[in-house]
Amino acid sequence: MTSGLSSADFAIRLDTTADETEAVLEKLLSDAPLPDEIARPRRLTDAMRYSSLGGGKRLRPFLVVESSAVFGVPREAALLAGAALECIHCYSLIHDDLPAMDNSDLRRGRPTLHKTTDDATAILAGDGLLTLAFDIITRDEVHDDPAVRLLLTRALARAAGIGGMVGGQLLDLAGEGRFGDRGPVDVARVQQMKTGALLRFGCIAGALLGQASQKDYQALDAYGRALGEAFQIADDLLDVESDAAALGKPTGADAALGKTTFVTQLGIDGAKKRVRDLLAKADEALSVFGSRGDVLRAAAHFVANRKN
Amino acid sequence: MTSGLSSADFAIRLDTTADETEAVLEKLLSDAPLPDEIARPRRLTDAMRYSSLGGGKRLRPFLVVESSAVFGVPREAALLAGAALECIHCYSLIHDDLPAMDNSDLRRGRPTLHKTTDDATAILAGDGLLTLAFDIITRDEVHDDPAVRLLLTRALARAAGIGGMVGGQLLDLAGEGRFGDRGPVDVARVQQMKTGALLRFGCIAGALLGQASQKDYQALDAYGRALGEAFQIADDLLDVESDAAALGKPTGADAALGKTTFVTQLGIDGAKKRVRDLLAKADEALSVFGSRGDVLRAAAHFVANRKN
Question: Which residue of A lies nearest to B32 if distances are taken between CA atoms?
């Protein structure tokens, strides 16, 4: 690892933020109504809690928190923005797992939400988490300046929307031949939209909250794009090289679908080489921050070399 | 009608706003990417267009436009906020129509989206419209003051969320016995959440955009609540008294499900009496605006007496 942070220190930091994120989400997902709300139905909040509490590395909130730390943004504010991002991530997993989409029974080693409840509850829990994210990200506690919160809110909507994550999921299904002939698949474009857009948002969130210079914003943007691609290639490699117990979900799914991935395109060695190049890119982007970039540097290496 | 506006004049006004809303939505739902987006997939924008263009009374945008007109808010700004609200409404129809939810084949006299495409595309088109709403409502053109746009954004998230529309849909399904014993059904609560929250948002949106006094805000809030309940009772009455051709969707659906509605609770005559009381309430709430409330007064009467 090229950063000044040991793997063990990084792991502690990641765990700490995951615990804090869990506590924030726990509070946000109570069934107590907010002002302007009628009582939230318990069945719905239970479903949302099932799919968003009790697990996960919380990588996206971690990126928000650590990109914010570069600019001295208060941790509580970053955690709240991170929780909003995590709500979007969790909703996307719920909807992606539905029988009408990827039809997955297992997620993080547990039955998926629609298996423990039903498809209707799962659809609504996803809709609820997506909507809640925009309730959270607009709150006063996220930033004193409403103009900053607005920028952040719009960036989140763009990252999650049809030119980002939602569009990427559609392209991913199209690439599996779900809507007829699959045609040529642009793996990089699918990655940038489906998984890259939210990860990139996590990285630029700190720059937005910290009202960073254009140069610093662009550095985090470049870092976030490299990290996002490395994340997806690592994912494709895990699907080939890992086993279901370690991964917490079935492996070999891509091959079973005859799916085009970074691994089918570049081969295993080529994919690993590409990850190394991306890590060099990420390091270079962060160089402008000096030692303030250490944790983010470690995060890119962690993402690229993770085991699940 | 107690207002100073004839039915014919009201109908022209409603049509004009519907046309303008259509034009705004048409622009927003192109497949041209926005800044911070990669290209939007055509299949997805086509699906979103299918379900949000070419029809509908556009009642919710109309309420935004007319509540805004009371305070002299520029029409272009109100139309944009109205389009965001309409995106939420259209997404909710797409998801509600899914086989996993209400399993409806017909909507506005046309096949529902999942019938013309597939469930996956319909889920994603709904997610895309929901997310796009928050992209739209945060735009600079909605209001000069970011603090006002934030208030509006958060109010929209609350209205659409688990303490509003999404929660109401879950309660509605629960009331059909979809999750086991149906238990006692609180018809008024389901209405306030499922259909009332968005209609109410349309009515208070003008007060928020116009930075109205607390007193004027509360007047529109009271008006919006009365209009929302009248809307739902009229809906329940139409399900009993109308025919499918006039309604553009099957009638008698509530009875077939053995559903508790305002009509089963109050009887047809009782329901009609309740609508008259609600119209008096709406009129009274608007009295503070004098003749500036004429169009909104006519809107309540239109909603209560509509034929589809």
Answer: A163
Q: Is the pLDDT of residue A195 over 60?
A: yes
Answer positive or negative: Cα dihedral of B163, A153, A297, A265.
positive
Looking at the domain assignment, is residue A2 inside a domain? Answer: no
What domain range includes position A272? 7-305
Taking CB atoms and an 8 Å limit, are B41 and A127 in contact across chains?
A: no
- A91 to chain B: nearest residue by CA? B127
Average pLDDT of the residues in B222-241: 96
CA distance A193 to A55: 24
Cβ <8 Å between A36 and B158:
yes
DSSP for residue A140 = G
User: How far apart are the C-alpha atoms of B199 and B108, rounded to whole Å?
Assistant: 19
CB contact under 8 A, B179 and A127: no
pLDDT at B1 over 60: no
Q: What is the mean pLDDT of residues B284-308?
A: 96
Query: For residue B30, is it within any domain?
Result: yes
Angle value at C-alpha A145, between A139 and A150, nearest 5 degrees: 60
* Residue A308 confidence class, pLDDT cut points 50, 70, 90: confident
Contacts of B115 in chain A (CB under 8 A): none
Coil, helix or strand for B107? strand
Q: Tell me the nearest-neighbour CA distance from B149 into chain A, angstroms.
A: 8
pLDDT at A244: 67
| ipTM here | 0.96
Quote the pLDDT of residue A255: 80
Give how many domains chain B has, as a whole number.
1
Looking at B65-211, which runs of residues are DSSP E strands? 106-107, 110-111
Q: Does the beta-carbon distance from A167 to B132 stay under 8 Å?
A: no
Structure confidence by residue, pLDDT tens digits, A228-282: 999 999 999 999 988 766 666 667 878 888 889 999 999 999 999 999 999 999 9
Is the pLDDT score of A77 beyond 50? yes
In this structure, is residue A162 part of a structural domain? yes
Confirm whether B2 is domain-assigned.
no
CA distance A140 to A137: 9
Residue B4: what pLDDT? 76
CATH of the domain at A261: 1.10.600.10
Q: How far apart are the first and last CA of chain B?
A: 19
